[in-house]
Each structure stands twice: as C-alpha cells, then as structure tokens.
Design a protein that fits this description.
With 256 residues, this protein is α+β, with helices and mostly antiparallel strands. Helices cover 18% and strands 24% of the residues. The protein contains 5 helices and 9 strands. Strands 1, 2, 3, 6, 7, 8 and 9 form a 7-stranded antiparallel β-sheet that branches. The chain has a two-stranded antiparallel ribbon with strand order 4-5. The protein is globular.
Amino acid sequence: MKVHLARILLEAQTPFTISSGESDAESDILLLKDANGLPYIPGTSLTGYMRSLLTSEEANQLFGPESTSEDQEASRVFVSDAYLLDEEEKPMDGLRPQLSSFVKNLSMGTIRDRVRIDGETGTALDKGKFQMSVALQGSRFLCELETDYREADNFPIDIWEKFLNMFLTREHRLGASKSTGLGAFRVLEIQKKTYNLKEKSDFEQFLNRPISLTEPLADADKVTPDQTSIPSPFSLELKPKSTWIFGSTLNDPHAD
C-alpha cells in the first residue's frame, strides 16, 4: 500500500500566457494571476495537458474519465497549481505580504501586440489588432502530484512511471497562442518520493509530509532530463513547385 509524490520544476522557454478572461486599459487579454498578483499555472490546465501525453485508457486510469456522469471514477492523482519561484528558487505559494523586486519584475510580465486573422482569407481582420499580456521567458514554476492513498492497492504504477518519464524528457506547450511560438516549457527536475503506508516510519512521514511547496521533500529522489533522450536537431529542405510569396510588414515603394 503505497502513496507516490512528485514535484515537477518547470521553466518557460518562451513567454507564455494563460488568459484570466479579463482586460484593462493596457491589455485586451490579461494574464491569469494568483492572490499575490503573480502568474501561475492552474492545476486544471496542467491536468488537461498531462492527459494528452497518454492514451485515453491510460489517462483514465490516472486522472479518471472525462465524462460527467455521477458514477464516474475520481482521479487517482491530485495535481496542484504550479507556483512561481523567487530568486532563491522557492515557490511563492500562500499569501505573501511583501514581494522582492525580483518577483515584482516577474509579476509585471510584458505586453505583446497581436492581430486577429480571417480564417477564410488568411488576412488581418478590420480592427483586429489587440494586446496580450504574457509572462516572461525564464520564469520557473513548481507543482506537486500526489496519488490517492485510497487507491493505493490498485494504483497503475507502470503508467505513473511512464507518464513521469514522458513529462521529464519532452518539451511542453502550455497556455494560449501555442501555434505562434508561445508557451514552450521544459522540465528541469522531478523529485519523487514513495511512502509505504504499511511501514510505521513511512506512515508517520506521510502524515507529516510537507503541506507547503516551500518545505523540502525529505529524502526524495531527484531526476533530471537525460540529454541522450532529447531528439537531435534536424533540417527540412523545401522545393517550391510554383511561384510563392510571404507577406512583409516593411514598406516598399514599388509594391503594395
């Protein structure tokens, strides 16, 4: 009868945005922020993405079916929100009355100009320009996954290990505007800890396990991406079969 914990350290390789559904005078799409005014990644968004890494059957065994029937099985894995790390590599979970200048700079993010495109013509829509607030490249986040102790005897450990390995070795895309280059993440480290609830010492450790992500996960195994498992760069040669043109934003007196 075992319970498994995993803490996942993520780093944004590009700016990213997760919309709050609100706007202000500076931005038409505001970045989702927590109670401290800091960007974060909701556990629900992480869960949805994590499901996509597995087959439907595997995802259902870990996270439960996506149906809304009353008799559906609950998720066997609890996924926390991913919280921003400060300059000391500590996650900013819980209310913080004061923020360092480093964290304040990260909280501000930046504004990007975007243009809505007509799906039929592929051209910019009239009055289609808008502004989007994005979190900064290089921001780091920490989340925690914990398996349900009530399902310990029937937990699919093989799928769990497969999932963690896939999450560790792949590049990930989270948030909005992924197709335009935003939302690239990589995993820097995964801390893994297993509690055997049939052993007294492990059971006591489980009862006293850290509640806050700022508290270290004692005696956890730390794994980092294996460089040999990262796909090598490749080149793609394209040969046009007819004339072609890419639009430019530069003004040319000889062309419209």
